[in-house]
Amino acid sequence: MGTLDGVRIIEFAGIGPAPFCAMVLSDLGADVIRLHRTSAVDIVPGVDALVDRTEGIMARGRRSIAVDLKNSDGVAVVRELLAGADGLIEGFRPGVMERLGLGPADCLAANPRLVYGRMTGWGQDGPYAQAAGHDVNYLAIAGVLAHIGKRGEPPVVPLNIVGDFGGGGLLLALGMVAGLFEAQRSGLGQTVDAAMVDGSSLLMAMMFELLGRDMWVEERESNMNDGGAPFYAVYETADHKYVAIAAMEPKFYAILLERLGLSEADLPGLQWDETRWPATKQYFAEVFRRKTRDEWCDLLEDTDACFAPVLTMREAPHHPHLVARRSFVDVDGIRQPAPAPRFSRTPSTVQRPAARPGEHTAEVLREAGLSSERVEHLISTRAVAEASEKVNAAPSQ
Q1: pLDDT tens digits for 59-86?
Q2: Is 164 assigned a catalytic role?
Q3: Which of 122, 93, 92 is closest to 201 using CA atoms?
Q4: Using CA atoms, how far apart are residues 238 and 390, in angstroms rounded to an integer?
Q5: Which class for 318: exposed (0-12), middle (13-18), buried (19 or more C-beta within 10 A)?
Q6: Alpha-helix runs per DSSP H in 62-159
Q7: CA angle 343, 346, 350 (to 5 degrees)
Q8: pTM value surpassing 0.90
Q9: What gap in Å lies between CA 354 and CA 115, rounded to an integer?
Q10: Which of 135, 164, 193, 198 is catalytic?
Q11: Which of 235, 342, 331 is nearest to 292 (CA)?
């Protein structure tokens, strides 16, 4: 029984950060009902590549219903579900839910306790609100992207982790939990406007602090934690793999040097002599190219040198530390990250594999109090739909 056991969330199926948020809430124990469009029940895995990539791990843990949101009976069904729900998650452009008759005003009027979570890139208002965009666009305008990469080279795209999932899905999950907590005290719900551009800039709080104190150089790879410092960097090894060093504190730096067989006098400059960082970094690069990654692991692991091997996604689940912590789980034959964080009394868990669109339509509607006759009528008129028997669960990757 997770921390959110007893909480029911209606999730309007989408891609990226909104389903990631719903996955996190489900892992925490919430009963998340994923609402697909009726057309989704006929999608055959392998035909729609985007669906194949998003209907797996990030769809885990939820049941699915399929509803025609252009059908008045379908919309009426959604309103009935929302009347008994604690929260809603949607990731459409501003105005889409309002045009469906399912905007915050409509839903909160029917259920004043509802916490209405909205996930967008640019936010619900502002000059860019209606523009299309993706993770890298939000990082670009938020002052994040300009500071990731090597000096003298273009900024580097840091996967779609920072905007979509860190500043997006996780921040919406926090907003939903905070809203649900407040609603328990006030009896009133509210709208949570989670924008990836806001969340991405929030994740830069420390860097903005340093900039405000004239302690940050805006040129890439020039600061203590952007790859500019020799003691906080990634180095190639003899076997063309990589290791990560983060020996920032002097006592840890001393341990690193001792393990490398060096003294500070051997180096081009002292640890915090920023003018000599490029030369010292080049010196370290030459040192780390003398051994393989595994040899450096033998020498530096289990010390306070602040060292770690750089592992690929295929390698990471097999690292002894992650194995010991059970940081990865197998669900429906797919190795994937385990729920996090961990709780001592109410552990989180993956409730079930990803559902087929519409797999639980009849089950959920009957739970909501609809009669079997009405459910059958809604299915016959395609106001709602059940999963097609010919469609198997879509691959996770």
Answers
A1: 999 999 999 999 999 999 999 999 999 9
A2: yes
A3: 122
A4: 51
A5: exposed
A6: 72-83, 96-99, 104-110, 135-141
A7: 90
A8: yes
A9: 24
A10: 164
A11: 235
